[in-house]
Specification:
Layout lengths: L10 H12 L3 H12 L6 H10 L14
């Protein structure tokens, strides 16, 4: 391998590296945003109640049962 060879970095990788260098708090902000929607404890009892309360959908949703 020649001495002048350097590993390839895509434009997207370069952009992300520059963005993280300019704004070091970005990753912490992303984790906080993720915690708002995704990282939550699951209430197993409520989930089971919700599953039991579901009503199965008809094969053709626009048809009424009386027809």
């Amino acid at each position: 391998m020649p001495f002048f060879w350097k590993p390839y970095k895509s434009d997207v990788t370069q952009f992300l590296d520059e963005l993280k260098a300019k704004k070091p708090s970005l990753e912490a902000e992303q984790r906080a945003g993720r915690a708002l929607l995704w990282d939550r404890a699951i209430d197993r009892e409520a989930l089971e109640d919700w599953r039991e309360a579901r009503v199965p959908q008809q094969p053709y949703v626009y048809q009424t049962k009386g027809e």
